[in-house]
Amino acid sequence: MSGTTDGAGAVTATPAAGVPVPVEPPPHGLGVSLPPADAPAKTEGTFPYAADLWAEGLLWAAVLRSPHPRARILSIDTKHAVEMPGVRVVVTHEDVPGDAGHGRGTADRPVFAKDEVRHHGEPIAAVAAEHPDTARLAAAAIAVEYEVLDAVTDPQLAFEAEPLHPDGNLIRHIPLRFGDAEAVGEVMVEGLYRIGRQDPAPIGAEAGLAVPRPDGGVEIYTASTDPHTDRDLAAASFGLEPEQVKVVVTGVPGATADREDPGIQLSLGLLALRTGCPVKLAATREESFLSHAHRHPTLLRYRHHADADGKLVKVEAQILMDAGAYADTSADALAAAVSFSCGPYVVPHAVVDGWAVRTNNPPSGHVRGEGAMQVCAAYEGQMDKLAARLGLEPDEIRLRNVMATGDLLPTGQTVTCPAPVAELLHAVKEAPLPELPKDAPEAEWLLPGGPEGAGEPGAVRRGVGYGLGMVHMLGAEGTDEVSTATVKVSGSAATVICAAVETGSGFSTLARQIVQETLGIEDVQVAGVDTDQPPAGPACHGRHTWVSGGAVERAAKMVRTQLLQPLAHKFGMSTELLQINDGKITSYDGVLSTTVAEALDGKELWATAQCRPHPTEPLDESGQGDAFVGLAFCAIRCVADVDIELGTIRVVEMTVAQDVGRVLNPRQLRARIEAGVTQGMGAALMENLRTTRGQVRHPDLTGYALPTALDAPEIRIVKLVEERDVIAPFGAKPASAVPVVTAPAAVASAVRAATGRPIGRLPIRPQAAVAQVAQQ
């Protein structure tokens, strides 16, 4: 018998002729690297994304967007567009039958601009036509007369500027006061930090299909990450009851925030209702950049006080977040920024003020690690400054101040979950450093800039920096987190029905593993998601691993009880004395042994369950309150090579240790961490959606730089701390947001170490990375 090895490293036996070989069942359940069920369809190109959908009698949509960041609309003339051959209908604000405003956090954004446009790219009208080119030409033929107004693009000026919105310019102010506001330390360092506008840059641009229903309603097929909220917003805008609108979730081609803007599906739904025909829109890359939310650009001023030994005494901070034209989820992002403004450190006293304001810049909203990422870059910069002032190593100043379970956040909340911050930092600190590049021609690729782009090798300096980050799990400040799931078992197969959207987080794989673990059934399918199912909430903050995974587990356990109770009664024992493994039911004493299929005896069993974590509370007028369900932590050591004459930077290695609670799928977990680190590195070095007086410059993937495979560093995950959170289902914590939060701070720290420059702006500009010695 010989054997071959597949791509995953598994050995496949090849028997000799006539020799039977037992077939080992594939591993399943929690803790194994179960591959995604949709992987073959995605690799073969048959997975159904919204851009691939089709319907009989299909019309195509196009949206007219404002070329100005701020202007008064004097008139909208659709006559020429309507008269074009092939055009079916043109809709504007006058054609919105229901609520004109929508928005995730605050319903302050119009479906179509009415009297005034407030940001570049704001929708003004939409067209449905028989051909996509006709739709685009018709949209361009709509004549809009503008009175261009002075745009307010500096968030610092928004406080004194005239109101840009009926609700005013200030969205939220959080004044956090913790301990003694008058406390001072023997040593004090100050810093000013600016964080740029990172775009989610999904691999697939937004798309959707709206199909009218005979009952006067509409079905919307789109890559929604929160279908029930999208349904409710659409129904309110269309003047319909929620049950008249159905949102069907298609494949999601990447989602780190961009799928949460319902603007495109609102336009599609209106056009479908007006024409009585299916209407499709596939956004261009430019439309994608202009339509969805971005990471909040943030200005941060910090002052850290410490004693002579480097122990923190007080943190003072001012945090100003640019929300863009509309509120969206800015209030939530600000709460995270203010709450985590001191980082995973013990700080006895804190005075922090945070503001989120409206401007005429592109809209900001939920992006992975929102709020926490911006402040992490700032407080870690301050820790580097303290270390330099006191003559300590950057890792040592951090170790003297790290948080542990039982410590207090500056919001007054006790950290009750596992907080192994010191263990994480020790793990990355003690990992071996990468070797220095050899002085050989083939090593030119290792220099910043690569061949033909790097300066002299003698100008390259290597820096080692550290970052410690933290994020909150689930929603915060009183958000009612709840999810519902149903598990059905028939024959030897099971089905999970849950409206938790698979955005790349791996929930659909996790749901299969939970049922396999609980019921011992290998064949588990996860049904597609639509709003006919009970709601499961948005796909962010690790919600679905915790809340939806918890609902699936409870439903599976209820089915398990239904399955085992008749057998337990028959043999006079409790269900606790029976176990299910590999599709077989056995008793503790071996008297009972049967298969799950035999126990079902042709019956179908099902159960529906909910999971709702313990409640939280809003921050009060002093920024105090138990606002978070739980926390997750990460430590990253970055090694970077910097050309101190040209300012070019190459990240050599990112060494990661992370607090994960419990590893549920090792391969999937590592992929999530590596992706998060890469996204964070992009924010540190290159990703910045640039604007000029509110006008987006180069809204495409040529003008907006993203890290590629050639930019991605070696990512070494040296430790995954599995200290289970007792209140979380399975004890697991979210994996992808905290490395995004931590990586930019670690990269900036490494560049500081290499150059001696303060590095207060992200992404890091080349001129900022030119060392002081090179300027002399």
Would you give an account of this structure?
Residues 44-150 form the Aldehyde oxidase/xanthine dehydrogenase a/b hammerhead domain. This is Putative oxidoreductase. One of its GO terms (molecular function) is iron ion binding. It is built from 16 helices and 33 strands. The chain is globular. The chain folds into 3 domains: 51-149 and 208-282, Aldehyde oxidase/xanthine dehydrogenase, a/b hammerhead (Aldehyde Oxidoreductase, domain 3), CATH 3.90.1170; 298-477 and 617-768, Aldehyde oxidase/xanthine dehydrogenase, molybdopterin binding domain (Aldehyde Oxidoreductase, domain 4), CATH 3.30.365; 483-611, Aldehyde Oxidoreductase, domain 4 (2-Layer Sandwich), CATH 3.30.365.10. Mean pLDDT is 89; it is low at 1-16. With 776 residues, it is an alpha+beta fold. A hairpin with a 2-residue loop joins strand 30 and strand 31. The strands form 9 sheets. Strands 5-9-3-16-13-14-15 form a 7-stranded mixed beta sheet.
Secondary-structure topology with pairs:
Elements lengths: L1 E4 L5 E4 L24 H6 L14 E7 L5 E7 L1 H4 L4 E5 L9 E2 L6 E2 L5 E2 L5 E7 L2 H10 L1 E6 L21 E9 L8 E9 L11 E6 L5 E5 L4 H12 L6 E5 L13 H13 L3 E4 L2 H7 L6 E9 L5 E11 L7 H10 L9 E9 L14 H19 L3 H6 L21 H10 L29 E17 L6 E8 L2 E6 L8 H13 L3 E4 L16 H29 L6 E4 L2 E4 L5 E3 H5 L3 E8 L16 E16 L5 E11 L6 H20 L5 E2 L2 E2 L17 E8 L15 H19 L5 E2 L9 H4 L1
Parallel strand pairs: 3-16, 12-33, 14-15, 18-19, 22-23, 29-32
Antiparallel strand pairs: 1-2, 3-9, 4-8, 4-10, 5-9, 6-7, 11-19, 12-17, 13-14, 13-16, 17-18, 20-28, 21-22, 21-27, 24-25, 25-26, 28-29, 30-31
Helix pairs in contact: 4-5, 7-8, 8-15, 11-12, 14-15
